[in-house]
Amino acid sequence: MLHVLVLFSLILSSSHALVQDFCVGDLKGPDGPAGFSCKPPSNLTVDDFVFTGLAKAGNTSNIISAAVTPAFVGQFPGVNGLGLSAARLDLAPGGVIPMHTHPGANELLSVLHGHITAGFIASDNSVYVTTLKKGEIMVFPQGLLHFQINAGKNGALALVTFSSPNPGLQILDFALFASNLPTKIVVKTTFLDEATVKKLKAVLGGTG
Asked: Fewer beta carbons below 10 Å: N end or C end of the chain?
């Protein structure tokens, strides 16, 4: 029994020795599957663990009347390796975050001001939609198409958290109509007519 306890103690000690408290990303280096390499601890200050970019409202003067201010690893190296990140979501009246996915993370939306209609589509095409008010939250499972719309007459604000320091983002409308995917392929794969596809490409800047 003593031998078992000693062996268990050695295994536990060695496993703890491999664990780091944190790994602030060195953005000057390459970004691999495990994230960025770590800055030397001797070069770190408290500022490496603080991000002030979400304190300022985003610019909603755009085609979607909305702004997403990210605090991903690229903006906030302190989240490197920690399995989380955040973003600020500003929605002007009529604002919308179109159908999009985050290939690398689950998302948790927390409404701080206003009313936001949000929803997602499951892989079996079931639809889950509701209108959230201040203090309410909604989760969007990883990889599923989802959206947010300002449901009120005034601006809305939300804080979004992700289960990855680099959740990724692909907006469906932009992928189809802001890219150089040939119009004939978009027509064939979406069942939209050619005139509609060309009109949307003209609006969003796509070619082909």
From this structure: N
Q: Are 97 and 148 in contact (CB under 8 A)?
A: yes
Q: Return the number of other C-beta atoms located less than 10 Å from residue 208's C-beta.
A: 13
Cα-only R_g, the chain: 22
User: Domains in the chain, please, with CATH?
Assistant: 59-168 (2.60.120.10), 169-208 (no CATH)
pLDDT band of residue 84 (cuts 50, 70, 90) is very high
DSSP letters, 131-191, are EE-TT-EEEE-TT--EEEEE-SSS-EEEEEEESSSS---EEHHHHHHSS---HHHHHHHH-
Tell me how long the chain is: 208
* Antiparallel, parallel or unpaired: β 116-121 and 170-171: unpaired
Residue 127 CB: number of other CB atoms within 10 A? 9
Residue 36 in tokens? 């960025």
In tens, the pLDDT along 118-148 reads: 999 999 999 999 999 999 999 999 999 999 9
Residue 116 contacts residue 159 (beta carbons within 8 Å) = no
pLDDT of residue 13: 45
The stretch 168-197 carries a mean pLDDT of 92
